[in-house]
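Input/output pair, single chain:
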Amino acid sequence: MDSPIRVASITFKNWAALALENDFVRIVVIPEIGGKVVSIESLSNHREFLWQDDTRPYRHPRYGDVFGNYDASGFDECFPSIGECDYPEFPWDGVRVPDHGEMWCTPWRAEPDDKSVHLDAHGVRFPYHFEKSLTLAANAPRCTITYRVTNPAPFDFKYCWSAHPLFAASEGMCILLPDHPDARLVFALGNRVAGDLQETYRWPWLRTPAGEMLDYSRIGSPALAANDKVYVDVGDEGWCALYDPTTGDFVGFRFAPELIPYLGICVNHGAYPFEGAKGFWVALEPCTGYPDALSDVIALQKHATVKSRSSVSWSLALHVGQADSVAEVRRQLLA
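Output:
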């Protein structure tokens, strides 16, 4: 028999929120703060997978502000860019795209039903309508997140979308990917990794400032005071996961590589945000292009496009669970 799905209005850290729950997982979203998913909890052992920072209470973001000035936690959407930049082409050439895009700093509307939550928001400086729906599986610790972007303008709109979940890290965790894809370094703060920007490596090996090889898939100590990011090619299987071999817990995504061909991986070992308490998290960011700034994405022709007066759609399957091996994580994600 399928487990019941429950959707309820709740209060989360003093904010109006919506909770989706089945017998396996509970997901909480706050529409007013960029449609942010603020909690992903396994109900089998009550593990919270998203980074929580109680030193920075949630606040309404000021549109166009810097992402790190706020809670720097949870699961946001970056659209139409990750990095702050000017849109480079007609008819929006010179229009500023905010840091981490427009969607995280825009209030969303929410429409719950008996098994899902539909959320939407409109672009502020650009004419698009952004929608996402979260739907729980009836009998599995899985949530399907479906996206749709509509462009009503008479001009094509180039964009880069990235999921932006900040998963709570612990020393010894492993980042799991299929095979050994190319990995491109896009920034490095601290002394954990080094190299030229856009330099290509073979996952999971990067170089340290001392010239030694570093297994980037292994999470170290927050005392490293480093924050770095790579982009990898997704490959044919289209999945990624963060695995804790000590407890067997994992969280991961499955997605269509023809629609989401890249994955950003940002590991923050206690170097960010620059003010206040430092975070310790791993961001697994399925995305449509690289690097962070849309102007650079377009220059490299790695952007996506929503044609004039049309829409585009894609989806992610979010999984949580427990496994006694990497092979079992993969089996559950691909089941």
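The radius of gyration is 19 Å. The helical segments are 294-299, 326-334.
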